Amino acid sequence: MTNHTKHDSIRAELQTRLDHLMKRAQGIDSELSEPGDTDWEERATEMEDDEVLATLGNIAVKEITEIREAIGRIDKGTYGVCSRCKKAIPAERLDAVPYAKTCTACI
Ligand SMILES: [Zn+2]
Fold first, then answer.
1. C-alpha 86 to ligand 1 mean position (Å)
2. Predicted local confidence at residue 56, as pLDDT
3. For a 10 Å CB count at each end of the chain, is N or C smaller?
4. 82 CA distance to ligand 1 centroid (A)?
5. Dist. CA 106 → ligand 1 center (Å)
6. Are 103 and 83 spatial neighbours (Cβ–Cβ below 8 Å)?
7. Could you read off the pLDDT of 23-54 as tens digits, one per residue?
């Protein structure tokens, strides 16, 4: 086992999560771009749903970005190192948030 493959299982997990989020985000996008019903009452309900979907979309986009960055750090060999204090991020924190880029003290 070389250092290169040290984070392979995490990388695979992140990639799976990323694929899932991408599919979900694309699903949200297609729902948002559907032409709305002209009936006013239904239109109002749809707008509320759209806001909920847009919020979900923003969360997904943020997570997609963070996961992509984490995969990039694994490839560069800087994964698991705090981006602020440069100390190792505790394993428990990486278990809870695999794409964490700061340690518990630097959140
Ligand atoms: Zn730190």
1. 6
2. 76
3. N
4. 5
5. 4
6. no
7. 887 776 676 666 655 565 666 667 677 887 77
Report residue 68's pLDDT band, with 50, 70 and 90 as the boundaries: very high
Give me the residue spans of the domains in the chain. Answer: 3-79
CA of 99 to the centre of ligand 1 (A): 14
Residue 9: what pLDDT? 93
97 Cα–ligand 1 center, Å: 15
Share of the chain above pLDDT 90, in %: 54
- Residues facing residue 81 across a β-bridge: 88
Say if residue 1's pLDDT is above 80: no
Distance 46 CA to ligand 1 centre (A): 44
DSSP 3-49: GGGTTHHHHHHHHHHHHHHHHHHHHHHHHHTSPPPS-HHHHHHHHHH
Q: Which residue, 82, 77, 86, 88, is CA-closest to 102?
A: 82
